[in-house]
Amino acid sequence: MKASFFNHFILFAFIVSACNSSSNISESDMNNNEKFNAYKESFVEELWQLYPEWASGVGYTKYDSVLQIPDENYRAAQLQFANTHLEKLKSFSTESLDNANKTDKAMMQNFLQRIIFEINELKSYQWNPSNYNVAEAIADVLNDKKRDAQQKLRLIYLRLKSVPDYYAAAQKNIKNPTLEHTELAIQQNKGALAYLQGSVLDSINKAQFKAHEEQSITAAVDLAANAINDYINFLEKNIKPMLQQGNARDFKIGEDLYNKKFQYDIESGYSAKEIYEKALKRKEELHLEMARIADELWPKYMANTRPPRDEKQKIKLLIERISTHHVHRDSFLIAVETQIKELIDFVNKKQLIYLDPSKPLIVRKTPEYMDGVAGASISSPGPYDKDGNTYYNVTPLTAYMDAEAESYLREYNHYILQILNIHEAIPGHYTQLVYANQSPSIIKSILGNGAMIEGWAVYAERMMLEEGYNNSPEMWLMYYKWHLRVVCNTILDYSVHVLNMDEAEAMELLMNEAFQEEAEAKGKWKRVTLTAVQLCSYFTGFTEIYDLREDIKKKQGENFNLKNFHETFLSFGSAPIREIKKLMED
Ligand code: ZN
Ligand code: ZN
Asked: Where are the domains of the chain?
């Protein structure tokens, strides 16, 4: 529904239990680790109290009745929380902590500093009106499968009573917003309104309350709906016309904020500029390789046509031709299931990483209650749902018209579908998740580093191809196209927010240099107007893991063992790669 700030990686949550402590530490260090474990528990409890909507989202239900009012007092409370805990963290010396706690401590520090940065410097609470939307806070309670409808609606009723104050504070916060976020806020809050007046009212009607209770809950829905409506009107009639006269804040956040946001969000060992420069270089390498493969494949696919002079045109034509090799629309799910087995066999045969056979991945048709977008995704149990299964959701193409299905199948053709399965499942996200569960940490399951999680999946793609998985020039060409997307996401994000790239230049980059269709490129432009830094996480994580591997390979020489590297790397859980690097190089 709304693009959550703690987006993609919330999906990859881990099972909680007591912390590991390694064997060769002194008694006082042991005490320190125990103290730190206890401290983490109280930290998390306070965290959920301060962020009750986020708590509902991860399945921690204790504060389901609370909605925070985003006013001055609330910001002061967050700052106080951050400063208090930064102080408390100082009292634990890093040297005395075991590896799991060392990385947890670094992640907590970063998280707290990020709160301060966001309130005092980034200030998106002023310029991003789409920060304000109550739909998810209601939906997360209503979608809970463990409680009955009446119980949930009584909690929602309490949350709804705060909605008018919530939007009043929101209106007061808005100062010099961007046009893009204002339009998004209007659109998304209209969605929230429809949700309240649709699904929520329906649930109330079906819940068989006594008349008086039904009346008071319905009245709270009406008041909340009015508040949302007021907010939409405020944005549509007061704010937007003013912005359209040229008074809007630029959505580009600029170099200073960008560099800081990059450090807090990605927690990289590289600066944003270094990653941007690495991406530029990688793009040129990929183009050279693709041109070479295109020359090699041209006679096989295009024997009767003269190749165009323009190298990129030549590559584009070949990609289009090879994309026609895809599964039939009715066998999409079967094809994915078969490929998962092939991937497991390959990883085992090549000894790339140990895959625990007692934790098989369950491939299933995407359930109805999830978004109906075609494709594949991993859904794993949240930190408070220990017994949940991990699923690989695959959406069949049954709802598609023939032309749509054809276009989708060309995009996820024979080659790309395999790369997608590597990324999402084996040995990508799913495998990483199984390892992360062996280094259980509530901190990492809540604050898990997105660049590490995505970087691993992107790294897995290249590693599998390097090891010879379905080795063919076609596979490499398609992989390079897929990889170019990640590379150009980084170039685009940095160029737009820091170097002032405009829409026409962005379209040129995405369509001519990354071989994207116009629709995809336009969607990407829209995304870069609404987010900053997030588009860099994939390439940054990939680069850091790849560089770390090459470093260690150089140092260990003949003793280097790929399987060992992978297992060690993943054993630290979803920590920032720069922290894992410190521990691995020790
Ligand atoms: Zn076709
Ligand atoms: Zn991913």
From this structure: 18-50+71-127, 132-251, 263-326+403-585
